[in-house]
Fold this sequence. Notes:
By secondary structure, the protein is of the alpha/beta class. The protein has helices at 10-35, 87-96, 110-126, 167-189, 260-279, 288-298, 333-340; strands at residues 79-80, 101-106, 133-139, 154-160, 192-197, 200-202, 214-217, 255-259, 303-305, 326-328.
Amino acid sequence: MRNICSLPSRKTALALCILTLFVVYHIPYSIRFLEGLIPMDKCQLVGSEALKLDNAVDITLKLGSRSDVQTCTYWGAPIIWDGMFDPEAYDQTHKRTHTSVALTVFAVGRYLDAYLKDFLRSAEIYFMVGLPVTYYVFTDVPEKVPALNLAPGRELKVFAVERHSRWQDISMMRMKSIMEVIDTHIRHHNQYVFCMDVDQVFGGRFGAEALGDSVALLHAYYYHRFRYMLTYDQNPKSQAYMAESQGDFYYHAAVFGGSWQRVRQMTEACYRGIIKDKDNGVEALWHDESHLNKYLWQHKPSRVLSPEYCWDPSVGYRSDIHVTRLLWREKDYGKLRDKAN
């Protein structure tokens, strides 16, 4: 490095020095920046009347308002981006139909202390504001769940879960817990369910425009990548296996949802796949996320959320991200996962 910076041509030396330093210290950011330049496919539908509507207000979606991104899938599901929808129209429609929403979140081991309070507090500010919401918190230490002043019509329910020996099992077994709480509680009180990771914080509106029969989220790392670059499970022995010719998008398991009926089907299918893999001594590449991607490829979601609904600031600047509605928190996996083991 010292030799490069001392080349006789000052302009050449400066350029090489800056380039080298950038590559050495920012390789991940460089790659992500270049990935952001890969153009997305474009919506091929003409007008929102061609969409498979989750509800009547979807007719107001403006598919052509964002020429820089893909605003629908080839099977007719909208991909929700800032600028496509009228927030007031969605809020008023769901208030009139008395929509209520369940939000499930797991806070096991140190994840509870590190993230749960901020997650819930920010949800009170930004998540489905004006609608009845029930938070379903799953934890191994129920007595440590923070007491919060919730808005009218919103409540918190706490469920004790087993602390598994590995964080991978904690992640995968949540599918079983969600399936069971839908059967015992959610189906009697809420029309829709969202399932989220706790190590996130809301930073912008996450409202009724996100509600649909089956809702998936584009992963912030992969939404610009070509299909062959997506990290589906490639082990033919796993129930999550996807061949090279399979797949549409790569979905993030940190956020998924839909009607309670569809989420029940989704979580049961993933759980059965995980258990069958365990019986065969196999573990999918990205655990429950791999199984979720397999399910959503076979059963297309009716609604897809753009990465603004779960954004990682470490990706860096992207011109197509106009607002960040849910943000990843910084993580020290060594400390967090040691305690949970």
